[in-house]
């Protein structure tokens, strides 16, 4: 609340003893190359490193205290991992998939490195864990999944309040993908297009993302997400801001956010719990073995909607327990009753 009331951006905090040796030279060169690729004749392409740092406002002077040096934005964008963890120890993006194992996770990525590499790793993680669906935009084939991945990740990295100890999260379940991160907001509540004015939480980081092509102009992210979400599932995403910024994009066709929220509340009131995925898988396997004498992991995965690796691990566990017999090896394995 204090940060929100002050005209203060934590990304501008100066670290007097951070030197160019604490930054990665390959990232500096890549930042220049990305900007030049994004726009022909970009001035960063002709500047020295020092000139580019000052132009991008990564090296600046605090006219209140007189301090001069590299700021937090510079460290997060270009710093070595040990320097980043030293000046911003709470910085991490925890990305998890919770479709089958809702108590823990099916897959996880914890990104603690610089923002450029974190962007690539997180976008790749989301793309790997979301199915790509055919869609046409103005008569041209497009990938709404890729747009959703890029916009959610860039928004989380650009508009996060890095001075907060709150861990930023990306959560992917059976019905949606959600992001949660600390925010320096000037508005609280659900966000609707046309009812709020876009304001950068980290204008220096946001500008570097725009200049290097990792993001578009300010305010375009929500528009892009809404359009991509409608192409992906036919439904709109939801956004809310406050001390925490939350974004939710439906990923299941026919998913309704309000209904899902009500279901979660109703479930919390019920004394019983839904069957675990082990129980559901066991029932599906039993049903299929009654219809067929032989089953395979891909066959059960198609019917159940679970990942093939999850199904295969469960089938192998039944083999170890003496409930099923196995024929063949690796991918060609077939399973039958003992």
Automatic annotation (TrEMBL):
<protein>
    <submittedName>
        <fullName>ATPase AAA</fullName>
    </submittedName>
</protein>
<dbReference type="Pfam" id="PF13749">
    <property type="entry name" value="HATPase_c_4"/>
</dbReference>
<dbReference type="InterPro" id="IPR038475">
    <property type="entry name" value="RecG_C_sf"/>
</dbReference>
<dbReference type="InterPro" id="IPR036388">
    <property type="entry name" value="WH-like_DNA-bd_sf"/>
</dbReference>
């Amino acid at each position: 609340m204090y940060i929100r009331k002050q005209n203060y951006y934590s990304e501008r905090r100066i670290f007097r003893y951070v030197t160019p040796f604490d930054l990665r030279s390959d990232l500096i060169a890549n930042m220049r190359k990305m900007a030049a690729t994004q726009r022909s004749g970009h001035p960063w392409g002709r500047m020295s490193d020092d000139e580019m740092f000052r132009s991008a406002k990564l090296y600046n002077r605090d006219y209140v205290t007189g301090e001069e040096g590299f700021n937090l934005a510079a460290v997060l964008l270009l710093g070595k991992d040990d320097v980043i963890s030293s000046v911003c120890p709470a910085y991490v993006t925890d990305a998890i998939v919770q479709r089958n194992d809702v108590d823990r996770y099916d897959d996880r990525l914890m990104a603690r490195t610089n923002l450029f590499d974190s962007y690539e790793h997180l976008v790749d993680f989301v793309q790997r864990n979301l199915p790509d669906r055919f869609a046409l935009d103005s008569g041209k084939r497009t990938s709404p999944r890729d747009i959703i991945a890029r916009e959610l990740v860039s928004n989380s990295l650009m508009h996060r309040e890095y001075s907060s100890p709150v861990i930023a999260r990306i959560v992917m379940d059976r019905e949606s993908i959600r992001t949660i991160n600390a925010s320096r907001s000037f508005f609280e509540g659900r966000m609707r297009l046309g009812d709020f004015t876009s304001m950068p939480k980290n204008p220096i980081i946001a500008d570097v993302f725009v200049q290097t092509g990792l993001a578009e102009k300010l305010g375009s992210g929500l528009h892009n997400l809404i359009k991509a979400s409608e192409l992906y599932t036919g439904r709109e995403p939801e956004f809310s801001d406050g001390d925490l910024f939350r974004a939710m994009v439906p990923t299941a066709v026919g998913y309704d956010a309000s209904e899902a929220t009500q279901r979660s509340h109703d479930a919390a009131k019920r004394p019983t719990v839904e069957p675990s995925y082990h129980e559901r898988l066991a029932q599906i396997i039993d049903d299929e073995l009654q219809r067929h004498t032989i089953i395979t992991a891909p066959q059960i995965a198609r019917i159940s909607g679970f990942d093939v690796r999850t199904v295969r691990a469960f089938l192998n566990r039944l083999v170890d327990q003496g409930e099923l017999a196995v024929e063949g090896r690796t991918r060609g394995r077939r399973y039958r009753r003992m």
